[in-house]
Amino acid sequence: MLWTLLLAAGIGVAGVLYGVHLDRVVRGKFEGQRWALPARVFARPLELYAGRALSPDQFQAELDRLNYRQAAEPSNPGTYRREGEHFRVHTRPFRFWDGQEPGRQLDIQLADQRVASLKDTAGGPDPALVRLDAMLIASIYPTHNEDRLLVRGKDLPQLLVKTLMAVEDRNFDRHFGVDPKGILRAAYSNLQAGSVVEGASTLTQQLVKNFYLNADRTFERKLKEAYMALLLERRYSKEEILEAYANEIYLGQDGSRAIHGFALASAFFFNKSLSEIGIPETALLIGLVQAPSSLDPRRHPQAAKTRRDLVLDLMVRDGVILAEDAAQAKLAPLGLAEGGGRPVGEYPDFISLVRRQLQRDYRDEDLRSEGLNIFTTLDPLVQSTVERSLPVQLAALEKSRRMKAGTLETAAVVTSVDQGEVLAVAGGRKPGYAGFNRALDTVRSIGSLVKPAVYLTALSQPQRFTLTTSIQDTPVSLPDGNKRWEPKNYDRRVNGSVPLSDALARSLNLATVNLGLSVGVKKVAETLYQLGVQRKIRVVPSLLLGSVSMSPLEVAQMYQTIAASGYRAPLRAIREVVDARGQPLNRYPLAVEAVVDPKAAYLTTWALQRVVTHGTARWLGEKLPEGMTMAGKTGTTDDMRDSWYAGFSGDKVAVVWVGRDDYQPMGLAGGTGALRVWGDFMLALPNEPLSEFPPDGVVIANACGRSNVPYIGDSASRCGSNGGGNASKRPGQGGGAGAETAAQTVEEPVAEREPPPPAPTPKPPQPASGKNLFMSDFYN
């Protein structure tokens, strides 16, 4: 008896000590970081307000991308009804970096391609501005590729909770972690049904198995599971246990990504949030708990339907739903979303830009475990429009030049004018292809895209140069080692004296070189740095015709500064980053710096507008709708190896490059290649026209036989080589001789051999905000 008592005491002490150890294990994970959560990347939300440019089809496409569903009566979040230009939308609530956006019932009227009115139909005040929920565009998964969307216990639908208990644990509210009666009842039910219809383990035991243990079917593991379930119930409330279970349970596989939790499973299988699913979807999700692999509704639809219908019967048995509801639900299809749920990772080119900025500010383990929410500047409407256009336009160009299909490649970048936000990135002709990103990593000679910097440098000296100043389009011959550098115009002609604005519109090489030599090549290089160029520039005369090489993203920065009237907003792809609790972390504020005289920038923009209406981009000018104005510049390099177009409207900057990866000639100039791609997608987007209001210090006047020309000063006093009156003609209106000749000028190639540098390279200006000038981090 004594030895028996001592043995029992020893076992008891060992059990207590083991329990203390298990208790530490239980508390350590349950109270610490329970899961390694992926970083989620969101696009910019669609903002609705009266007057916003938006067509009905564009709005419906945005709702479809957000997985809103059409309904006769949009009474649930995530539903809408369209009648022509009239929409009724029930928006979803969404937590942004600056607070919670509530769900709303809205009446939205569009007219003339704009939002005409916004009304709240639920009795609240009519909102001035509404943000739709942001679209998830990517996730950066933990190393073990688990994925889950966390949901709070109070937000779990009661239908799902009651169904879960009816099928998996009918005594959940009454047991202490282990349910002996439940074991007996499950055995009886399974015996009656002739198959496994009810589980014997409690929800707490299932949580312990998934959360702490492995799936080994051993007696020791089962005892440990029961012990830990008792400890878990002792430490935590039923609500906390249910919440953890709902977020942890494994429900399927998406390639290498493991689907955990009901919230993510609802998105993955149905493209719906958990609050939006109905009776048949709820039954299917709960049915998957038993065997996610063998009941996968995409691979085994009949097995999944059989299990779903059995769950519906159990819901009727426990009074969760009525028999007629179950009968109707059994007639419903599985309702699976095409393509495996919400599209994630559709925009790899843009995401690669986001990753570069994130890797500067965060450790990789933080991105893969802390559940960060990253709100980006991607505009899905702009991105999708660009991606649709590129393959179609490249195929048309190849056909027109009788090229083999797939010969040409391209890259495109679209940004906002005022804020420098990157709206879209396309790194190649194949949308969604995660390959070489030409928008960021293709560095090619930019050709005549550099010329606006030459003319901007000159126009920044109003005492010497105006838009009507005569500059010499005459031959240039400079020493280049043992040879001479002698650039030519595209048409091999020499035009003599030409107005400065016409020289840019016609993209005259000789006039540009003479002007650049007059203002100084070093000054032009300094202007490029001011515009935002980050890489080292060789200060040589051929710089004036584009011997500098850049990526499309760098070119976009340069033209953004011109488009924003000389105010440089460093291009950014991220707006805000918040943690899993919604607290803001690193902020990415707008950092604007005045780097160029706004008056000179305005004059340069005016001249670039003439490029569109009377110059090398006249093809675009002929297609602009009434009231729309745009500016830009074509660019071509030696032997037509690179075709460029960079341009802007009042609110968007876009850059397109077209060429071959093998650097072979392709026979396309900027005006016959990249411009056609640029115009196709930009004309399909809502755009604002260029501002008609000049900055202070710029006057519109008639001079030199031309009308309505901007110049810096207070009177149009003189014309000619040192003209004080900036006389040219407003794009699209009557002008002096030579305007029609300019209209007929086609794009020019650049003929440059770089002579030895005559001057040291100036240092780039220091950024005003290093956090925002992220391009300098990977372009040296």
TrEMBL record:
Glycosyltransferase is among the record's keywords: yes
Active site: 168 (proton donor), 448 (acyl-ester intermediate)
Extent of Gly residues compositional bias: 721-738
Pathway the protein takes part in: Cell wall biogenesis; peptidoglycan biosynthesis
Compositionally biased spans, kind Pro residues: 756-767
Organism of origin: Thiocystis violascens (strain ATCC 17096 / DSM 198 / 6111) (Chromatium violascens)
Chain intervals with Low complexity compositional bias: 739-748
GO biological process: cell wall organization; peptidoglycan biosynthetic process; proteolysis; regulation of cell shape; response to antibiotic
InterPro entries in alphabetical order: Beta-lactam/transpept-like (IPR012338), Glyco_trans_51 (IPR001264), Glycosyltr_51/Transpeptidase (IPR050396), Lysozyme-like_dom_sf (IPR023346), PBP_1b (IPR011813), PBP_transglycosylase (IPR036950), PCN-bd_Tpept (IPR001460), UB2H (IPR028166)
Bifunctional transglycosylase second domain residues: 48-132
Compartments where found: Cell membrane
GO molecular function, one term: peptidoglycan glycosyltransferase activity
Top-level taxonomy: Bacteria, Pseudomonadati, Pseudomonadota, Gammaproteobacteria, Chromatiales
Domain Glycosyl transferase family: 138-315
Protein name: Penicillin-binding protein 1B
Family classification: In the C-terminal section; belongs to the transpeptidase family.
Physiological role: Cell wall formation. Synthesis of cross-linked peptidoglycan from the lipid intermediates. The enzyme has a penicillin-insensitive transglycosylase N-terminal domain (formation of linear glycan strands) and a penicillin-sensitive transpeptidase C-terminal domain (cross-linking of the peptide subunits).
Organism superkingdom: Bacteria
Pfam families noted in UniProt: Transgly, Transpeptidase, UB2H
NCBIfam families reported in the protein's UniProt record: PBP_1b (TIGR02071)
A cellular component term, taken from the record's GO annotations: outer membrane-bounded periplasmic space
Keyword Protease: yes
Keywords: Antibiotic resistance, Carboxypeptidase, Cell membrane, Cell shape, Cell wall biogenesis/degradation, Glycosyltransferase, Hydrolase, Membrane, Multifunctional enzyme, Peptidoglycan synthesis, Protease, Transferase
Ranges for domain Penicillin-binding protein transpeptidase: 411-649
Catalytic activity field: [GlcNAc-(1->4)-Mur2Ac(oyl-L-Ala-gamma-D-Glu-L-Lys-D-Ala-D-Ala)](n)-di-trans,octa-cis-undecaprenyl diphosphate + beta-D-GlcNAc-(1->4)-Mur2Ac(oyl-L-Ala-gamma-D-Glu-L-Lys-D-Ala-D-Ala)-di-trans,octa-cis-undecaprenyl diphosphate = [GlcNAc-(1->4)-Mur2Ac(oyl-L-Ala-gamma-D-Glu-L-Lys-D-Ala-D-Ala)](n+1)-di-trans,octa-cis-undecaprenyl diphosphate + di-trans,octa-cis-undecaprenyl diphosphate + H(+); Preferential cleavage: (Ac)2-L-Lys-D-Ala-|-D-Ala. Also transpeptidation of peptidyl-alanyl moieties that are N-acyl substituents of D-alanine
